[in-house]
Protein: ATPase BadF/BadG/BcrA/BcrD type domain-containing protein
Organism: Candidatus Thermochlorobacter aerophilus
Amino acid sequence: MLIIDGGGTALKVWKHTERGKMHLLTCIAGNFNVQTGRLTHVLKALTEAVKHSSEHTILIGLAGLSDETEKHALENKLRTRAAFKGKTICLMSDWELQLELHFPSQNGMIAVLGTGSVFAAKVEGKRLRVGGYGRWIGDRGSGMAIGFSALWHYLRLLDGFFEDEHFCKAMRRHFKDRKDTLRKVYQEQFQVQTLAPKVIALAAKGNSTAQAILETEAHFVADFVKLLKKKTAQVHLPLKLCGGLVEKPNYYRSLVEQVIAQHAL
């Protein structure tokens, strides 16, 4: 089975082996959220990912794909392409894909922390989602949220609200001053989520500003997990952290696990 996971930063293609292992075949950089209006870009990338594969079943999860009408429309477009002829296509949102991968036949909940964020659970086959409001309204705990907070702290630092030499130096690698910051964000559409790994690295080195940013976002994550657990009315529900920010061990993942354990479970 071929598994395709498209988010706000990359599209990853995995092969699911008969032994249940996941083997990463390729990773294509870019924004594959279907709500961005770049459907042609998404269709092209999906076609490229599939055309050389001999796998019969294609499981596709895309950020922003939650409406059933949109799913059917996208599936119909894919079926007109030669690469998908004779294939079994299973289309779903990125969070639905994560639920199926981590909890295929059992109850469980996930916190997806990547470019955006969403929190979901599956109980007795029924799915429930909270959060995931989008980058502008607020995907708390996500790369976007951390990046926006880093920008806010940097601009306040430049205004003179506080001092932090190491944080200022790290941000100046991207923005030389206030004017440059605002220009890149508002006129050049700077990829705000790319600041998140820098903040995590700074926090791991003991920087107090970076640690405060991550602490705030970790508590928001815990709030959503706590709400999700309350809505499911389940006493014991396993949780899986997934998404680019926490898929590998790092300072932020450890902090999120700690805060959730203290305040949400």
Q: What stands out?
A: The mean pLDDT is 91. The longest helix spans residues 208-232. Residues 2-102 form a domain with the Nucleotidyltransferase; domain 5 fold (CATH 3.30.420.40).
